[in-house]
Predict the 3D structure of the following.
Amino acid sequence: MESTVKTSCTRGLRLVWGRRACAVMLWLTAACTPGLAQTSAANAPAKPASAYSANVATEWFQLALQLVQQTPGFSPPIAARALGYLGLALYESVVPGMPDRISLAGQLNELDSLPQAQPDEPLHWPTVANASLATMTRMMFSNASAENKARIDLLERSLPLKYAQDFDPNAVTADITNRSETYGKLMAMALMTWARTDGGHEAWGPLRRSQQNYVPPSGDGKWSATPPAFAPALLPQWGSVRPFVLKSPDACKAPAPPAYSEQLNSDFYKEAAEVHRLSLQITQEQRQYALYWADDPGKTPTPAGHWAFIANDLLKQNKADLAKAAQTFVLLNMAMADAFIAAWNTKYAINLLRPVTYIQLVIDSNWVPTLMHTPPFPDYPSGHSVQSSAAAAILGSAFGAQTRFVDNTHNDRGWGPRTFASFTAASEEAALSRLYAGIHFRAAVAGGQVQGRCVAQKVMALKLQP
């Protein structure tokens, strides 16, 4: 009798993505066991992303924050952008494993489509996330040191061994592993193709060398370089970078600052006098606030990294699952990235001078901020205020507005841990820290908070559910 048993068969995974008419198709094949019904793990229904821990995500973001601190060129806006793409890579790589969530393709600016996983081809979501985050981290930190590039490689290899409960070799076949790694890498590469068109890619490098030097506008009340370094303006074109969510960089406007005036009874003079007075009468508590939230690039993971650190800690403390981590990081990091774009757009549109310039000109010619140097960009609004307010709103939505938490971001620098009654309380302290440091007027703080809350509302309005 003729045998009907086949000795091999072909199993395919089709991944389709592209902008407009562009498509990529990838076919993976694996041998099938001859003569037996296919009831193995290879074609069993895949577990959802919520069935796995957030460990893969939290490990990668912990490394990303170290890379932000140690990689040249990662000023606060650039750091926020990198974290935004990492958050999006995590979410989009595992969202097919989140039945109650949908892709953000079609909702984000100029992101029309992304790779799609076939529902009949099981994927292992920790493996997908590991491959996607490893690939995106390498591309976002392409100028990292050789030592840190080796750390990226080591983390990718070690996670399946470190978290055996999420990478059970008895349940995850070689076929599923290979297919999952390929899908994760393809997702990261698709997103990086999109990232290279946002106007912020390599802002510190070759793509910016052809641009003309920025010349700040002159006139009363306009920004000029500040002591002691009198450094040139930082990233004056950043306000034109394509946002993730905001329909345009000026979609969230800050209220206008007080009209410039040197009259003693004017609102502007009173704000400058407040900065001067606080610097001479600063309390130990106010001093601590200023230094704690300084978040200097090169010394810390920057302001966006500070809030990402808080989120990472909370995910670990709450023993969150992979789906929770993906949604938290994508909303938080995109909000902070867009917050910096909105803030920089307003800064260079208004070009308001810094307190040190006004105070030396009008109040005290010998005055300088005593706690830190003034950053090299215009005053209004305070970038800390914009991104901290946006971050607090997102985390309040994710974990509860009245969540009491411990911030361990600066424990290694001797500034923590510190406990906050809520995310809003922390963001208000972060915003006011810039006033206490003598580098922002109060209006820049208040205006930045308004703008940041607007950014968060836009991000939280994204459609995540089918």
About this structure: The beta strands are 405-407, 418-420. The chain has two domains: 44-195, 216-460. Residues 216-460 form a domain with the Vanadium-containing Chloroperoxidase; domain 2 fold (CATH 1.10.606.20). The longest helix spans residues 322-350.
